[in-house]
Every structure is written in structure tokens, then in C-alpha cells.
Amino acid sequence: MADMQALSEHIVGGLGDKLAGHGVTLGELTLEVNPGDIEAVLRYLRDDPDCAFTQLIDICGADYPNRPLRFDVVYHLLSMTKNVRVRVKLQAGEETQVPSVTGLFDVANWYEREAFDMYGILFSGHPDLRRLLTDYGFEGYPLRKDFPLTGHVEVRYCDDSKKVIQEPVSLVQEFRDFDFESPWEGAHAAGLVSENMLPGDEKAGAAESEEG
By residue range, what is the domain housing residue 19? Predict the structure, then answer.
């Protein structure tokens, strides 16, 4: 913890007002930045010899739809020489243009495309910002919390047209109300087994009756 605290103080001293916040929790250092400062912060963390965070492990998103800036964009970095990790995060809205960091880390290319595909997070300066995991013509962003569980369209093979087609989702079964009651409690309530019987005893009784 002492080493992490010293690293935190070193980074805060080097970045100054480019940090919106910072903290060490459970031995992990988290830095908060504004979108416009993400390139400068990551460049410092990569190039400063006392940091040497040369590996971008991933970029991921998180959705908080009740906030004005609904998305967290989170960067995880690893220093191979120091054997230390750091988390950098920023907040972005649906229209926020987060600067791409593909110029600092080549691997950011697909990470940013995935965040765009799943959340709709926009990255300015990205060389090829298009969907990565979903199909052509996909509607919406699957990891947003307001995205319907059924999706908007379903994909199937049409035997008539001999090709894969997309259709609006149609629920062929009406909503059913499940009480999630234990099957054994349900059997007792229905009078199928007595209160003194253990599950399975009714089968043994039936077998004895047949033998008799």
C-alpha cells in the first residue's frame, strides 16, 4: 500500500490539474480525468520512467442512465517493469466525443470499436469507428441498460428467399406469472404428499401398492 500511495503522489504531482480525482482503494489506484485530458494523461503514464504503463490491457464502458453523463469509459494499464496496474476513468454523455488513444496504443483500435458497438460511446479521431461484434444493420446498443432484453429484431433463415433475414421481434408466448415456489412445497400444498413424507416417498408407496 505504501508503494501504491507513493506512486499516486508521484502521478498527482506530475499531472496536476489534468486529474479530476484520484484514490487508492483495496490496493488499486484509480485516476479520474476529463475527456479532453485522456490523451495527455495516458501519454504521461506510458512515458514517465517511474510509471512505465506501457500496456493497455483494455477499455470498457459502464452505463448509468440516470446520470447526465451516463457513461463511464474505463482504461486499465499495466506496467510490466513495475508489476503495477492503474485504472483511469472518465465520464461521457451520449454526444460526448472522447478522444481516441489509438495513436498511443495500437490495441485501442478494437477496444474503442467495441465500446462504440456495445454502448454507442463516440471516439473522435478513431481511424475506423464502426461496429465490431454485432451484425450489419443492427439497431441500438446492447449493453445500455435501457436496451430491451429481446432486442429489436430477430435473425432467421428464410426458406422462401433462401437467405438470412431480419424481422421485428415477435413474442409468440404471452407473459406468464411464475411464483418460483419450491416443487416440494407445491406438492405439499396440493395434497399430493403428506407433511411427514420426504420427497420421493410417494413413489415407494405406489410401488408397494402395485406389489401387494
Answer: 2-134
Extract the C-alpha cell encoding 140: 441500438
Give every residue of the chain whose pLDDT is below 70, as ranges: 1-2, 171-212
Closest CA to 85 of 42, 2, 29: 29
The three-class DSSP label of residue 122 is: strand
Residues 18 and 41: beta-carbon distance below 8 Å: yes
Whether residue 172 is contained in a domain is answered as no
Residue 114 cell numbers, joined:
467495441
- With cell 399430493, the residue in question is 192
Instruction: Supply the DSSP string of 134-197, one letter for each residue.
Output: SPTT--S-TTSTTS-TT-SEEEEEETTTTEEEEEE----S---------HHHHHHHTTSS-TTP
Are residue 77 and residue 7 in the same domain, yes or no?
yes
Is residue 140 in a domain?
no
In a domain, 63, yes or no: yes
Question: 177 Cβ partners below 8 Å, 6+ apart?
Answer: none
Residue 36 has a CB neighbour count (10 Å cut-off) of 13
Q: Is 63 helix (H, G, I), strand (E, B) or coil?
A: strand
Q: Does residue 121 share a domain with residue 26?
A: yes
- Name the phi and psi angles at 198, rounded to 5: -90, 155
Instruction: Give the pLDDT confidence score for residue 80 in this predicted structure.
Output: 94
What pLDDT does 25 receive?
87
pLDDT at 172: 57
pLDDT (0 to 100) of residue 1? 46
Q: Contact at 8 Å (CB) between 85 and 55?
A: no
